[in-house]
Design a protein that fits this description.
Helix 1 runs parallel beside helix 3 and helix 7 packs across helix 8. It contains 9 helices and 8 strands. It is about 30% helix and about 20% strand. It has a single domain, classed as Rossmann fold. The two termini are about 25 Å apart. Its EC number is 2.1.-.-. It comes from Arthrobacter burdickii.
């Protein structure tokens, strides 16, 4: 997909910008872990924290975490609000910079390996997100991913959709053990593409119900801890034919990733 012409002004609107330290640790762990191969293969790994908010802490954390994968990774924090960019400048350093911009990704023609936009598109209308998905996808490196995610205020409940240049690839759910009663408690944190689709007859609703059933069926393992129960739940879903894209090493972290085709809006 050829990059779209860059718009004359930042594409998007200023969002609330609230954030907290360590809020995005779950998605960062996923990027540095099972997706780290994308960074390792890149000739010049470039990563974007899109819409980092009123404080640049998530961009700084992303930079630190991905440097464990490639010590030459470059992270650019992009914010549409120029005041937020100015406030972030004192934290800039070699490999970490900040720019004003939006979904057009003002990167001087360079193509990022990762674009992470968390708690951004959830503040847009349901009729808007698809165009922004397409805009960012058109500006990815050939092996790149766009991560559109949402989490609660301190990162205990998190979900994200991953998209490559061809479209949506997967949905990940990551929960802190002890921070939920049923896996479907995460429903209010689904990405914009799915949050209004959690109704009877929609694939994502069926998926969350399947998670709940398997979690309840594994109740006998509760005495061994939440981790063992979660792993059993994930194994049951895989046995039932759900196209899971990860395995026990990720499940033990309270994470599960399913192919987008299983939850694609009907």
């Amino acid at each position: 997909m050829p990059p779209r012409p860059r718009p004359p002004k930042p594409l998007g609107t200023i969002t609330r910008g609230t954030t907290n330290p360590n809020r995005l640790r779950r998605v960062d762990r996923w990027l540095a872990g099972p997706q780290g191969h994308r960074l390792r293969r890149a000739a010049a790994p470039l990563v974007v924290d899109l819409g980092y908010g009123a404080a640049p802490v998530t961009a700084v954390e992303l930079f630190t975490r991905l440097r464990s994968v490639r010590d030459d990774v470059e992270v650019v924090g992009i914010e549409i609000d120029p005041a937020r960019v100015a406030a972030a400048e004192p934290l800039a350093r070699p490999g970490l910079t900040f720019r004003q911009g939006g979904f057009e990704l003002p990167l001087d023609g360079r193509l990022p390996v990762f674009v992470r936009a968390f708690n951004v598109l959830r503040q847009y209308g349901e009729d808007e997100y698809a165009a922004y998905w397409d805009e960012v996808r058109s500006r990815l490196a050939p092996d790149g991913l766009f991560i559109d995610g949402t989490c609660d205020e301190i990162g205990r409940r998190s979900t994200w959709a991953a998209l490559d240049t061809g479209g949506p690839v997967s949905l990940s759910i990551s929960l802190r053990f002890g921070a939920f009663t049923l896996p479907s408690d995460v429903a209010e944190r689904l990405p914009k593409a799915l949050i209004h689709r959690n109704v009877e007859g929609e694939p994502v609703h069926a998926y969350l119900r399947a998670l709940d059933r398997a979690w309840l069926d594994a109740a006998a393992l509760a005495s061994f801890g939440h981790r063992q129960r979660w792993v059993a739940m994930c194994g049951a879903l895989k046995a039932d034919g759900w196209p899971l894209l990860d395995g026990a090493s990720r499940w033990r972290l309270g994470e599960i990733t399913v192919a987008w085709e299983a939850v694609r809006p009907g």
